[in-house]
Automatic annotation (TrEMBL):
Residues in Extradiol ring-cleavage dioxygenase class III enzyme subunit B domain copies: 7-279
Enzyme class at the top of the EC tree: oxidoreductase
Pfam families named among the record's database cross-references: LigB
GO molecular function annotation: 3,4-dihydroxyphenylacetate 2,3-dioxygenase activity
Protein name (Swiss-Prot/TrEMBL): 3,4-dihydroxyphenylacetate 2,3-dioxygenase
Length: 283
């Protein structure tokens, strides 16, 4: 039987790359990097061999999709931020059997979803950026699931999260599951972007984000899941927060009683709200 050893909401801000370069922003995202490195440490300590990533940078406009390739290999430059992420080489073993199992179980729950075995289907940076810090030795297998879903129902993403849990538990995997995306995600207007690399685009978004983190750390997930659809819309949640809905589905939705542990304190980046948080799993 398989198991889930870690579940987390993680940041993938490209300014982590900028933080590692000499210049005025050197070190500015060290706390975010440290949070991802701590997740790496915990994965190693618990013997995690597979990483499942809900990627809010993989846009899909119809259906849900899983990249179930046997191997991911390439050199990535971001179309969105080529000045931040360029020529990033990657080479990870995939988890195709797990991807197929997730799709089969989710279809049984009424979700329109496909698992793809296509060598030229590349990874997006919502997967690649966290893996740079969490899986630098390429030891763990990877499964990437699209979570930028603008025309989809959060309820379906909830079912996908349930399917991921069931598929992992029926497998031989020891898995960590990562919801890769921001909290609020209203990026600064273009002419304000350079000056606003470390700020929020509206104080309202910060206040709602902070309330959400209070609910998470207090274990009040009935309240959080009730507000999630409106939160995703009103605060421009990244990918409409389908990654978070998938994570909540995996954890048990409103029945989840754990209390989130914040590894990286809330920070603002280019107008958005960010965090690294781990969600304890029942023994």
């Amino acid at each position: 039987m398989g198991k889930i050893s870690l579940a987390a909401k993680v940041t993938h801000v490209p300014s982590m790359f900028l933080s590692e370069l000499p210049g005025q922003h050197h070190g500015c995202r060290q706390s975010a990097i440290d949070g991802l490195i701590e997740i790496r440490r915990r994965c190693a300590a618990t013997g995690v061999d597979t990483l499942v990533v809900f990627d809010t940078h993989w846009l899909v406009n119809s259906g849900f999709h899983i990249n179930a390739s046997a191997r991911y290999q390439g050199i990535y430059t971001s179309n969105e931020f080529p000045q931040f992420i360029q020529n990033l080489a990657y080479d990870y073993e995939g988890a195709p059997a797990l991807g197929d199992a997730v799709a089969q179980i989710a279809r049984g729950k009424g979700v329109r979803i496909e698992a793809h075995h296509v060598d030229t289907l590349e990874l997006e940076y919502g997967t690649l950026v966290p893996l740079k810090y969490i899986n630098p030795d390429h030891r763990m297998k990877v499964l990437s699931i699209a979570a930028w879903c603008p025309w989809h129902e959060l309820e379906d993403s909830r079912r996908i999260g349930e399917a991921v849990r069931e598929a992992i538990e029926a497998s031989g995997c020891n898995a960590a599951v990562l919801a890769s995306g921001s909290l609020s995600h209203r990026i600064h207007d273009n002419n304000e972007a350079q000056a606003g690399i470390h700020t929020i685009s509206n104080e309202f978004y910060r206040q709602v984000d902070k309330r959400v983190l209070d609910l998470w750390t207090q274990g009040r997930f009935g309240e959080f899941t009730a507000m999630l659809p409106e939160y995703a819309r009103a605060c421009h949640g990244e990918g409409l927060m389908h990654d978070t809905a998938m994570l909540m589905g995996l954890l048990g939705w409103d029945k989840y009683t754990g209390k989130a542990e914040i590894l990286t304190d809330y920070f603002t980046s280019s107008g958005t709200g960010q965090v690294n948080a781990v969600f304890p799993l029942a023994a």
